[in-house]
Amino acid sequence: MNSLIKEIKDSIGDNDDLFFTEHQLTDLSVVFIGLNSLVDLGPSIKQLEKMGQKNYSSKEKLKQISQLGEIKRNASEITSLLLEGKLMIAISLNSDSVVSVDPVPVKLNRAIDQITNENTMLGPLVSFNEDSLTNIGVMRKQLLSEKIRVKHFRTGIHHKKALSLIYYEGIVEENLLETVVKEIKGNSKSDLYSLQDVTKMLGITPYSIVPRVKTTEIPSEAAQSLLKGKIVLFLDGLPFALILPSVFIDMFFLESDKNLTFPLMISLRSLRIAGTLIALIFPGLYVALVAVNPEVLRLELALSIAQSREGVPYPAFIEIIIMLVVLELIMEASVRLPKSIGPTITMVGGIILGQAAVEAQLVSNLLVIVLAATTIANSTVIGVQNLISIRLLKYIVLIFSSVFGVLGILAGVFFICAYLAGVSSIGVPYLNFKHSKGEGNNG
Amino acid sequence: MLKKMLIFSLLPFLLFPLSGCWDNRDINHRVMPISIGVAKMDEGYKVFLQIPEPSSESLGTRIVTGEGETINQIIDNISVNMESAVDLLHVKVIVVDKRLAEEGLNDLISGFIRSRDVSAKAVIAICDDNIDQFFESMENAEGGEGTILLDYFEKYSGWDPHVALSRVWEVYRSSHSYTRDVAIPMIKRGQTTFLEIVGSAVIKNGRLVEVISSDETLLYNAFNNKSTRGKIEILDDASVMILSNDTDYKAEFTDQTPHLQTTFNFSVMILETNGNPSAQDIKMNLEELLLDRYKALIVKLKTSEADILGIGQHFRKEIPRKDLKNWRSDYYPNLAFNPIIQVDIQNYGNLKHTTN
Amino acid sequence: MDRSVQVVMMYILTHLGLIFFLYPSNIIESTDQGHWIPISLGIVIHIIFVLVYLKGLSFFPRRNIIMIYSSFGKVYLILFLLPIFLYFISAVTITVRAYSEILTIIFLANTPLWAVMALLLFIPFFLAIQGVQAIFRTGILVSFLFLPFLVFILIVSFQNVDASYIYPLWNNDFSFMTKQSYINSFFAISGGFLFLGFIQPEISYKHKKIVIAFAAVVPAFILSVYIPLLTFGKATAETFLFPFVLALDTITLSWIMFDRATVFFLLSLITFIMLFISLVLWKASIIIHHSLPSIKPVYIVVSLTFVIYIACLLIPNWQQVQMLFKWNSVLRFYVLLTVPLSIYFLGHLSKKKVY
Q1: Which residue range forms the structural domain that includes residue C161?
Q2: Is B28's CB within 8 Å of A306's CB?
Q3: pLDDT tens string C122-170
Q4: Counting Cβ atoms within 10 Å, is residue A101 exposed (0-12), middle (13-18) or buried (19+)?
Q5: CA distance C79 to chain A (A)
Q6: Which chain A residues are within 8 Å of C108, Cβ to Cβ?
Q7: How far, in Å, CA of C313 to CA of C324, rounded?
Q8: How many domains does chain B fold into?
Q9: Complex ipTM value
Q10: How far is A199 from chain C (nearest CA, A)?
């Protein structure tokens, strides 16, 4: 047995889906090498046969076969190509080179689907899927411009992943592009499995409460980011686009808002900002008003709260923490659970939180209203990541306000502002006000 | 980055122990009196607290009293003896007995302003009755949801242009200002209603010096450009309702004598007539009635040297500040006051008005 | 990148924070009538010195005053930067101590002073270690969140105003200029503008745009004094420690779900003060960093904060705070006078050298 084939066998190892099939391609005998989990062999052979139907001498045929694909001689390269789903054709088991061809692949990708996590009103419904090439195709369809540039990278040692980078030539911020490309090339050995790995590779701290990389599964959002000079990354296997850099206003501004008229867009966006503020402040406000500064409340309200809290055994801070934790659990559980059991959680949660806890005088009924308002308002934020950041950040305000009352709320909000102001990824500050204004001059 | 992480992870640990460090009592563990009554005893004070009792069904009222040397000491004592701590943050009405008002409210009011516990917006009233019985009757009063006294003075519920509405900060201001005094309502227990407005007490430098009637209080409110809308005036031949009012002032200062010409414009609506008086008659009668009342009021106020109308305000331009200090004694008694009343009959209701 | 908006906002916010608490009572106390005279004198001095300072700075494009002084030699560094540094430290100490006392007096009666001081130092410290750009960005965000409150409250604060209290307008007595309370009022006038000379290489701005900020700060100076004055009259207002706070207490807004809605105004001013403190902490830290470049800025800020916190704890009562205001006024005037003028003259000097 020849060393090249042996090397291939050794490096892929003990895999039962690796095949070495000898086959008469018209009248030339060749060996097909591939992984039958990735290559649909029958149709592939048929396709190849169609190409070589004319009668040539065997030498010409060899040439022809070599024209079907690229000639490869390096075993490790061949291995990784095999893992990508390429088919190798060797003239014989002894040949020192193989020809790598694109076979008919086994269908492993789902079709382009509807958006599942980021529902939009009045926006396109196409979403990205797990295959990065498909995603790039979708992007190309969004922006028909010769200035779109796509760069492919392969990273990882144990695990070769395709990472694609898209930008808009001329609009993209040069510094940003340079740093990103430099970071990717410099860290090409890191294995990428998740978003955290990607951020780490780009030199962004993973210890961040706010998302440093914006994710979206809506192609039009990604396309608009390109037009704003941002960079879009696709990691093979992640069904969303990674947009760099992520900025503050992404929490509130959705591109599909622009399908509405201007006043409607403004009101929707301000609604989201208000929602975020409510989600941040309300729990803290409840604790501040009930425990520290009741004089701020109107008398009538103060009396009715006092009345509803009559018999509640623990301080307001503990009360709200307990209920918030239960609420967070319900939210997390309803994500985890299969759709068939989900409604049970909703129902049980609704009964426990809404009714029983109040009637058993474990919490005051105002608290239930506060929690409901918080949760609803929280959900107005765009993006799952942002939703979770706000969910977490509200505890900062809550803790401050339990100590300092109304001052604590403002101090907490100020603290969050200070935190956000200090965040910057790849040289672009999170609170980048220039981007928000720069929309106009990108046309 | 690790450093930042460290700070973040330390932060909650720093704050958690803090929150339990001092007494941040929850709202249901605070006793929040709505009104507070203060009476002068021979030695020290007696304090009444009207406390709404939140129970599961409705709000009841509870009256707690205490005696002692100072207000704060009494509150403190009550606090000790009650199941929850007393918190004066929500006091909305302060009732003082007549004796205390006559002796002077300055210490009481400046105490309230100083501690900032009691809101500067609390309404102050004088009880022209036995204050013990007054508060006792509150405990038994039906309905009101514990806010009965407050409702009398709230602009959006029970307030009426007959009532002089003065807040703690205004009383405090009057005890310092050179040119401004206040009138505060005088109340007592009513026969059929919970309370009855006796009139208004004229407070000069924090001391009660004169009492004016409800009708005169209306003029006081009109003078200060407060709305007198809805007030009904009865004449011999008709009764009218005031729809709106506004006041213009013209101040002159000649020969060390202040002259003030005040034009009051009332818009009224005719409610009932007796016989068939002409619009002109009604107008004349009303103007005359109001004019007489004004003149009487001014005479009364001048003798007591209390400037509740704030007339001195109009002469701040002319009188130098060092003389302004003596406005009440030197200039005010010489005031030449010239009220002009103009009544305009805005409409006649649903009926056409025909003269004869 | 031109960050004039951030600089203008920062200028406005820090001044608003400084103006509304102590300035009104200082001015009301300083004279009996015609309060606009001391106010406008202060404003004129403020504007003149800011303009001189800006003019001086414009001779040195893209350089901060530390670089400027150090390019002229060690003497200048010691002569000017040392007092500036001392002024900053004392200003932060006084601000933290005074404002936490204010907070406990008017708002947090149950909260111990050390906790309030810790809050007033911890958050600015957190902001200061993130650097000057973060401070300015926070300024923008904070102004979006809290300035609308402020404008709203300033509008409703006219509710109980009686215009007659404005008289008498004129005052021939100019003795207020030597009164301690008037001198103390320069805490608000001279405290906030030095940062314009520190931020230059990191944050560039157009000097002319600072003039826009005057339009916001000047009314604040006037309103902070005249709203309590017109609500209570001079004789009453002078008895208050914080006249503006009490003037806000008198506002009745029956259609808001909060009873003392004005506390939100006061507390948003406190956040502006935090911004001010973090800015001063940062300025002090870069002065140290200049003379001891081997120490990391983070450690400088940490130790400064710690020292200031200890100093704050050592001040037992309001009387002492007043004393400090008095002592601090020497430094305050030294800094107010010498820094803008020296920068201006050094600028002229260097210009001549070039020719």
Answers
A1: 4-354
A2: yes
A3: 999 999 999 898 999 999 999 988 998 888 888 888 888 888 888 778 7
A4: buried
A5: 34
A6: 292, 404-405, 407
A7: 14
A8: 2
A9: 0.93
A10: 21
